[in-house]
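Good morning,

Attaching, inline, the backbone tokens for the sequence recovery test we're adding to the shared suite. The designed sequence is right after.
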């Protein structure tokens, strides 16, 4: 990622770029709003909270990756289904043309046979 003057400016098009920025921003916020003298119990709670936050960010990134892969798979399946649909429509049109030709020949035979019987 190129250097930026503003540390809060993020290139959102880079995959996974938001997680480290989000985590760093959360840590900065927690650092700035902390009381000056943390009791030891509060430090443990903060550490646990940060661990949970890191775990959740990791899970979100993993889920995002899975969803991205599934999206790519579904896009490929959709493209294949569209191709198959187009092919089936063309086959149907060809079959309809053949049926129309056969129908016209049968109709001509019926008219010819009807003309012979009445004559």
């Amino acid at each position: 990622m190129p250097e930026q003057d503003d540390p809060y400016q993020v290139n959102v098009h880079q995959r996974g770029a938001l997680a480290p920025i989000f985590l760093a921003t959360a840590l900065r916020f927690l650092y700035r709003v902390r009381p000056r003298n943390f009791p030891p119990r509060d430090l443990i709670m903060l550490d646990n909270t940060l661990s949970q936050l890191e775990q959740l960010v990791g899970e979100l990134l993993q889920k995002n990756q899975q969803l991205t892969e599934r999206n790519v798979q579904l896009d490929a399946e959709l493209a294949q289904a569209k191709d198959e649909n187009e092919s089936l429509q063309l086959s149907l049109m060809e079959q309809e043309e053949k049926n129309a030709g056969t129908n016209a020949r049968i109709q001509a035979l019926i008219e010819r046979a009807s003309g012979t019987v009445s004559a």
